[in-house]
Design a protein that fits this description.
The longest helix is centred in the first third of the chain and has 14 residues, at 12-25. The chain has helices at 3-6, 12-25, 38-45, 49-61, 91-100, 115-120, 170-178, 196-202; strands spanning 65-68, 72-75, 84-87, 102-112, 128-138, 143-153, 182-192, 210-219, 224-233, 237-240. The chain is built from 8 helices and 10 strands. The strands form 3 sheets. It has a 6-stranded antiparallel sheet with strand order 4-5-6-9-8-7. It has a two-stranded antiparallel ribbon with strand order 1-2. The chain has a two-stranded parallel sheet with strand order 3-10. It is elongated and about 65 Å long. The protein is of the alpha+beta class and 246 residues long. The protein folds into 2 domains: 3-75, Winged helix-like DNA-binding domain superfamily/Winged helix DNA-binding domain (Arc Repressor Mutant, subunit A); 84-240, 3-Layer(aba) Sandwich (Chorismate lyase).
């Protein structure tokens, strides 16, 4: 079953989408049939029509259903065909990314910052930070989502010893273990070519485009405490954004 459905902190529409995704994967209802109407889904899950529409949008973007005005929501696949979909509607949705995927660490070590890296981390040259290198996977789809490097403030005593088998998002681990709150996340997106080594690690061809995402996590004092730098193969990762007029 989807990680969203098991996570009570996930947005309600993601929980609804994950439950429907699980049922469709089990063949109930089967591919080629229609999902219940929006009204029926609202009644079943005791949610608003907006929540149901967002859940159906998630399924549509995952390639599981197709929606046609006047004819309903048709199930076209029993499992996601477009792999990982990341919504960008709120801070909660952005942070949900870390909950919905699994980070497998390849190497964790302390580093001393050179001038270039110190500027990037808003720190001072010579400061000690912890660097984690690994891959992030989508357990539900069984694919590698990205290669990732994570930098953590070295003042978190013993942080490197609890990162080898993380059972929660790193930002949550920091909050719980060190008593702070992540109040702001900055994200930058850019397109870059993959090196041959990166293509091999991601199990993609050498000409597949990649999306680079850099996330900076700030605590309540405005201090940068975590930076993640990830490379996503463009053929198995989707960002979804919805903007509404104020």
């Amino acid at each position: 079953m989807s990680a969203f459905y098991n996570d009570p902190d996930a947005p309600r529409y993601q929980q609804v989408a994950a439950q429907l995704m699980h049922e469709i994967a089990e063949g109930n209802p089967p591919v080629g049939t229609l999902l219940p109407t929006e009204v029926e889904l609202c009644q079943r899950f005791d949610v608003s029509r907006y929540t149901v529409r967002e859940a159906l949008r998630w399924l549509s973007e995952s390639g599981i259903v197709t929606r046609r005005r006047g004819s309903g929501t048709l199930i076209v696949s029993a499992k996601p065909t477009r792999n990982f979909v990341q919504p960008l509607g709120s801070l909660g949705e952005l942070l949900q990314y870390a909950r919905a995927t699994r980070l497998v660490a390849d190497r964790i070590h302390r580093i001393k910052l050179d001038a270039e890296l110190a500027e990037r981390l808003q720190a001072s040259p010579g400061e000690e930070w912890v660097k984690l290198t690994g891959i992030r996977t989508d357990p539900e789809a069984g694919v590698i989502v990205c290669l990732t490097d994570v930098y953590l403030d070295g003042r978190f005593e013993g942080i490197e010893h609890v990162l080898h088998e993380p059972t929660q998002a790193i930002y949550e681990l920091i909050e719980q273990r060190y008593g702070l709150t992540i109040m702001r996340v900055e994200q930058r997106l850019s397109a870059i070519p993959l090196t041959r080594e990166q293509s091999v690690q991601l199990h993609v061809g050498t000409h597949v485009p990649a999306l680079r995402t850099e996330r900076r996590y700030f605590d309540e004092t405005g201090r940068l405490v975590e930076l993640s730098d990830s490379l996503h193969p463009g053929d198995r990762f989707i960002y979804s954004m919805e903007c509404k007029r104020d």
